[in-house]
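Lecture notes, unit on protein representations.

Consider one protein chain, 759 amino acids long.
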Amino acid sequence: MLGRKLGHYTVVEKLGEGGMGVVYKAADTRLGRFVALKVLRPERALGEARGLPQEARAASALNHPNIVTIYDILRDGGVECIVMEHVSGKTLDQVIGSGGLLLRQVFKYAVEIADALACAQTAGVVHRDLKPGNIMISERGSVKILDFGLAKLTEKLLAPDTQATQTLTARTQKGTILGTPSYMSPEQAEGRAVDARSDIFSFGAVLYEMLTGCRAFQGPSPISTLAAVLREEPVPVRQLVPDIPQEAARVVGRCLKKDPGHRYQNASELKLELEELLSAYSSPARSVVPESALPSQVRAIAVLPFVDLSPGKDQEYFCDGIAEEILNRLARLEGLRVVSRTSAFRFKGRAEDVRDIGRQLRVSTVLEGSVRKAGNRLRVSAELISVSDGYHLWSERYDRTMDDVFTIQDEISQAIVNTLQLKLGVQRAAVAARRTSLPAYSHYLKGRHCWNQRTEEALRRGLEHFQKAIDEDPCHAPAYAGLADCFVMLGMQGFLPPSECMPRAKTAAQRALEIDPTVAEAHASLGSVRAIYDWDWAGARSAFERAFELNPGYATALHWSAFFCHVPNGHLEAALTQIRKAQDLDPLSLPIAADIAMVLVFQREYAQAIAQLASVRDLDPAFYRIPWYLGRSHTGLRNWDQALPNLLEARALSRGDARVEAALGHAYALAGQRAEAREVLNGLIASSTRRYVEPANIAAVYAGLEQPDCALEWLEKALEHRSGWHIFLRVDPFWDTLRADPRFTACLKRLESGRSAVP
């Protein structure tokens, strides 16, 4: 069928196959656009004598942003097909995970589906086969319902299909069944006449699945599934997922009433209730996966940033440091999942109920506290709270001098371990702190505070504080690890030449491990240098594995291992598995969430990448990696009206990050806007005379302009400089125009040659 012309449409790609027929992407040669052609199976043929014009007009008259438009019905050479709007994205059944969707996503999609149903009901059109497979989630994250009204058009006597998720058409004594068993209303299942309330029942089954990840009705065969629809009640949604709001459970239950008269009588009424739920549960981090769904042997805690109650309000770094030290020590316990700093610290300064914080972070307990410092006197208060009921499991206040800060941390950590052992069954362990001088510790905390900000200015300040900590205590291993972390980030983000920072990162990490071989952060930094700069892949894996052993809760090690070690070697599935483990530990980390999307870009799974980014975009509108990676995703799909605005937004937010400039110039070139691409290219080259610019960024624009000689010349420079982004040569779409060139193959071989290539 590919390449065949049907009317003025040329078939270019097969999109999918279902009970009604095969769907193809086709080029409309008259209007210069893509459409979707649903080529009907012979037994589904519409036929001129079956009231087609009237039904077709009703279906095609639906004009709604959440309904796929029907353009035409075409017959050509014995082939009958329906011409529809083409939508890029995923079907809802591809989007729903085993644990359901985030509440915010569920209610957003549900409101849009209900709005579409209301529009159809006003026009007198009943879908009759509403199911996740007929609902598209576009690349922009909007609902598009397929096949509206077409079930009626294609009704015909057929044998039952064998799968409960396929459209089934059969005849009973009472009439004709048409629909999909798991989503079919009881009146459909009995072959009785249906109206708009039948679609509301199907909608209830879809909503049930979005919330729980399970079908409301499912049997081993279509007949047993139909029997369940007729006679059985589904398992209550809150029994499957206790965190689902009671109001949402009530809406599902009303939609799934067996008697149509007991359901919502119109979709407009249903939509109003769903809009209230969407407003109430609009937090992008809110998840329907409860703590009880975690493995029984694992329990979780979040350590929130301690509140600064000092008169001068000048102890933020110290408050953060105490919380982070306690967090790091708890992360070493077996049987306890500790949410990483990035996610826990997102709640700094926010007056949210601790139970709501616990639900968002998927933890059973939360530690919160405060610090009041006056001169050398210190008061630290801490409370361990159960998320399920808000009750305090333990609380204590410590009035000491600053010299006792390490003892305080020991006592708090051990008290938590004792309490958790009693309440949650985690393994008891000693969690003593590393001792150093108070001035060294103060500078170390300030350095970590800066490192966590990840900007160039903050990283440089972090270097200063870590060095001051070392000056105070030359044997303070964590400070050396902090130096290594700062140098790695300065090099990887292109702020400094790799030759200037990567060897220094390696030296600092090795010095930390000479003093204390158990510092997980130093092993992770050493693994990063071995991957990014040494191309010593085996050595990098060994270092990261040691970091995991020492601190299973260190999300950064999992993140860096996935991105710096697995991705460059083309192990993209392994990278996704590992980086998602990091996300389990740090569920609100934007860098981790964004880099999951980037791995999907490297897999050419652009629609999945867009969906991933859309799910976290509202967490921080100023985080430029989101529009940057969205721009790259849309570039892969050649959606220039989305790619270029996103990249321009990323440029403004990043204030001229050379990697964003490279993506923008590359996109301009592929979009045919060569003058704009040249302007970006010239800007990068000019900038390289004033500050360090990774040569791979310039090579990427030349690659987009299809100037292989220039692109490869700059790639050679990237290899010589060992700049960070070049390690993705094997997988990055930037280089797709160069892959057939033997010179590019030679570059890959150099990268893969390993440690022998180190200068």
